[in-house]
Amino acid sequence: MSAQPFWQTKTLKQMTKQEWESLCDGCARCCLHKLEDEDTEEVYYTDIHCRYLDKQDCSCTVYQTRNQLVPECVWLTPEQAESFHWLPDTCAYRLIAEGKPLYDWHPLISGDPETVHKAEISLRGKGIADDQVPEEEWQSHIIWKA
Question: How confident is the model at residue 43 (pLDDT cuts 50, 70, 90)?
Answer without folding.
Answer: very high
